[in-house]
Each structure stands twice: as C-alpha cells, then as structure tokens.
Amino acid sequence: MSSIANSVKNKARLFFAIELSQDLKNKLEILQKSSPVFAGRPVKPHNFHLTLQFLGAVPHQDIHDLFDSIDTPNIKPFELSIDRYAYYPNTEIGCVEILEGKQHLKQLKTHINQCLASAGLHFSKDKHEFRPHITLFRESQPIGDILQPLDLSCKVERFCLMESVQNEKGVYYEVLEEWPVYEPSIKEQFFGIKD
C-alpha cells in the first residue's frame, strides 16, 4: 500500500531520480563493502539512486499535479558510466560520480524543471552545480585511495518521482511514478528501429 495513503503527515518528501537496476545496486554494494575508500554510515543498497531534482516537502494533495505536469522528454536512452569515487566534505558524503552521460542527465533535469514551471509548480533552486552521483556513505571520511578508477555502467531508459519514507527500519525510498525518457515514433515502433 502506498506510503501516501498511510502517512499521518500531510506532506511527502519528494525528489526526481534515476532508479538503478538491481544488478548495478548489487555491484555498488560489493564496492561499498569490499573497498575501504570511505568510513561512515553506509547507505542501504535498496536506497541507491541518482537524484535529478530534489523537491522537498510537498503537500499530498499536490502530488497528482506533479504526475500530470511531466511530459516524456525527447532524449533517446543513453549510457551512464561510473568512473570514479568522490567525496563532498561540506555534506560528508562518500559517493561515486557519473562522467559519461552527465550531459544527458542535465538535459533531463532541465526538462523536469521546465515541465514543473509550465504547470505553475515552483520549487527552490539548487544551490550547487549539478554533480550527478550515487551516495554510498553519509557522515563519512575518505580513508583509502579515492583516485582509483571504476568501471561501472548502466543504461537510462526511465526516470521517476520518489518519496523518502521514514519507518521503523529507517529511511526507505519509494518510487511513486515513472516516465520513459523517450517515446518512439510509430515508424520506429513499426520497423523496430532503435537509436
């Protein structure tokens, strides 16, 4: 059952994100456990994701307006490469960063913000430059070779709206709705054309 229906609060903590495949989550969990690059509080593997746009606390009655405001962008499915570790000292986050695919993620983020603005839905602007990353540790410090190269990748075909839900086991990120990044034309569908 949806956390929206169960929540006693009248607001939900929401963000747009890329939900990662289970295969990539498994590989990131292995990195997290076997590679001593950071010491800190590990993020639970089921919560691994890539944030596109944080919205904050949104009244429950506005959530369906959010769903309706988002159109399918015209961004063909693309590859992300996870090439390196990164550490953000201000927030004490140990993470992995995206290099290849970063420009497509920026386009997707811009599309989301344009859809929200067109629907009259306004949220606070990001204070920092967009650095797409997947958080592995919070309240962390680097303790190992942060410069060692990584070689992970995934294909992005969808993006989603997620809610941060607090329960007795801690924080859990739940997908509320998702959208494709690209809608093939009739011709593409008929002839099976890809890319």
TrEMBL record:
<feature type="short sequence motif" description="HXTX 1">
    <location>
        <begin position="49"/>
        <end position="52"/>
    </location>
</feature>
<keyword id="KW-0378">Hydrolase</keyword>
<protein>
    <recommendedName>
        <fullName>RNA 2',3'-cyclic phosphodiesterase</fullName>
        <ecNumber>3.1.4.58</ecNumber>
    </recommendedName>
</protein>
<feature type="active site" description="Proton donor">
    <location>
        <position position="49"/>
    </location>
</feature>
<dbReference type="InterPro" id="IPR014051">
    <property type="entry name" value="Phosphoesterase_HXTX"/>
</dbReference>
<comment type="function">
    <text>Hydrolyzes RNA 2',3'-cyclic phosphodiester to an RNA 2'-phosphomonoester.</text>
</comment>
<dbReference type="Pfam" id="PF02834">
    <property type="entry name" value="LigT_PEase"/>
</dbReference>
<comment type="similarity">
    <text>Belongs to the 2H phosphoesterase superfamily. ThpR family.</text>
</comment>
<dbReference type="InterPro" id="IPR009097">
    <property type="entry name" value="Cyclic_Pdiesterase"/>
</dbReference>
<feature type="active site" description="Proton acceptor">
    <location>
        <position position="133"/>
    </location>
</feature>
<dbReference type="InterPro" id="IPR004175">
    <property type="entry name" value="RNA_CPDase"/>
</dbReference>
<feature type="domain" description="Phosphoesterase HXTX">
    <location>
        <begin position="19"/>
        <end position="91"/>
    </location>
</feature>
<feature type="short sequence motif" description="HXTX 2">
    <location>
        <begin position="133"/>
        <end position="136"/>
    </location>
</feature>
